[in-house]
Design goal:
The protein is an all-alpha fold and 203 residues long. The protein is built from nine helices and no strands. The chain has helices spanning 2-23, 29-50, 57-60, 63-77, 79-84, 86-110, 115-136, 150-167, 169-189. The chain is globular and about 50 Å long.
């Protein structure tokens, strides 16, 4: 029950962030919905294709599409307040990242895959929606230039895979989500990131 609630919270937060990002580029309502959908459900769709896991999440559960659409429409009416509540939505985004990443790893494990695939599945599920959002908005993806994001998604997936045989599914899921959430919040607060590579060609 709690996992379902957290999953819906993640979908709503990601859909709203995608809608607000779309609004900065003055797209029409279809564009708002499209980018919100890609942000909220794009990572899970890519994961399912990669793992040959069908039907896709939103096809098996079409009501997720309506959740995204309603969230996107609400965001168009409350964009000003959402932008002002950036810190609050960063917290929701951190929670969504941890939840999506852990669930992505769970699906890989349920299909019999090992550590590497579980870790990458978590990363794709948690982070690729944001990549799609930024690509469609013609900006360098946030996860490639800001505080730890994709790395934490991979850690959630890897941690769940490691803990699952010892603690069982429920406890392993809870601990993976909690660790990912705390690490993401710390990364934001203290601006922790990977080393930056900068190359400038000198004439």
């Amino acid at each position: 029950m709690i996992m379902s609630v957290l999953f819906y919270v993640g979908i709503v937060a990601e859909a709203m962030s995608g809608a607000v990002a779309a609004g900065r580029y003055k797209v029409d309502l279809f564009g708002v919905f499209f980018i919100a959908f890609a942000t909220a459900l794009g990572g899970g769709s890519i994961r399912d294709v990669m793992l040959d896991h069908y039907p896709l999440l939103w096809i098996a559960n079409p009501h997720y599409v309506y959740v995204v659409a309603i969230s996107a429409l609400i965001a168009t009416r409350l964009a000003y307040y959402i932008d002002r509540l950036e810190r609050f939505f960063l917290i929701l985004d951190a929670l969504g990242l941890a939840v999506f990443s852990t669930l992505g790893a769970k699906i890989a494990i349920s299909l019999g895959h090992g550590f590497t695939v579980a870790m990458i599945s978590g990363m794709v599920t948690g982070a690729f929606g944001g990549i799609l959002r930024d690509v469609f908005c013609n900006t360098l993806p946030l996860i490639l230039r800001k505080e730890l994001y994709a790395v934490i998604a991979m850690l959630c997936g890897g941690l769940h895979w490691f803990l699952y045989p010892y603690l069982g599914e429920d406890l392993a899921t809870t601990l993976a989500i909690l660790c990912g959430f705390v690490l993401r919040i710390l990364a934001i607060k203290y601006k922790i990131s990977l080393p930056i590579f900068s190359f400038e060609k000198h004439q």
